Amino acid sequence: QPPPRAGVMIYNGERQNHHLDKALDQILIRQAAAALEKGMPVRLAHPIRNVNRTVGAMLSGEVAQRYGNAGLAEDTIWVSFRGTAGGSFGAFLARGVTLEITGDCNDYVGKGLSGGRLMVKQPENANRDPTQNIIVGNTVLYGAISGEAYIQGVAGERFAVRNSGAVT
């Protein structure tokens, strides 16, 4: 490997702060404590904005850490959102976690879906034909392995690429 030019770092040159302590999932994890600790069903509701990215991934990590691939019973954790989700909404969603959004989503919805359930619905007052409206972005369900996705509208390009088991 040639030596780097002066001033060019090639390995761990600076610390990064991704502000994960401020992620929406941190709130979801706290509010879903009864489900995570005792398997008791919880129902949550939150607004969501496009700055909220990979919502559900950290929550699913907590489920996987405690229950492995078996996850929780179906719909143990159910979170309803209103608004516009940022990228990778429902990424790696674990069995037992359901995320429902009334609004729309950016790219990579359900990336690596792992047994969870996703629902993307048109707003009740939307004056548009769902069959003519893109409601989720590109590369939805990329690499999904199991779970379900319900989308009331049109998806962008590369829908369910490398999907090896999710139902949509």
Question: Mind explaining what this structure looks like?
Answer:
- With 168 residues, this protein is an alpha/beta fold.
- 15% of the residues lie in helices and 26% in strands.
- The chain is built from three helices and seven strands, in the order ααβαββββββ.
- The strands form two sheets. A five-stranded parallel sheet has the order 1-2-3-4-6, with no helix packed on it. Strands 5-7 form a two-stranded parallel sheet.
- The longest helix is centred in the middle third of the chain and has 11 residues, at 57-67.
Summed up, what is this model?
The chain has helices at residues 24-31, 33-38, 57-67; strands at residues 42-48, 77-85, 97-105, 114-121, 134-136, 146-151, 154-155.
Question: What attributes does this structure have?
Answer:
single chain; alpha/beta; two-stranded parallel sheet; globular
Please write the string of helix (H) and strand (E) elements. HHEHEEEEEE
Give the number of helices: 3
Shape: globular
Rg, alpha carbons = 18 Å
* Spatial strand order of the main sheet: 1-2-3-4-6
Number of strands: 7
- SSE-based structural type: alpha/beta
Query: Span between N and C termini?
Result: 46 Å
Percentage of helical residues?
10-25%
Beta-strand share of residues: 25-35%
Question: What is the residue-mean pLDDT, rounded to a whole number?
Answer: 95
- Poorly predicted ranges (pLDDT <50, ≥5 residues)? none
Major sheet attributes: 5 strands, parallel
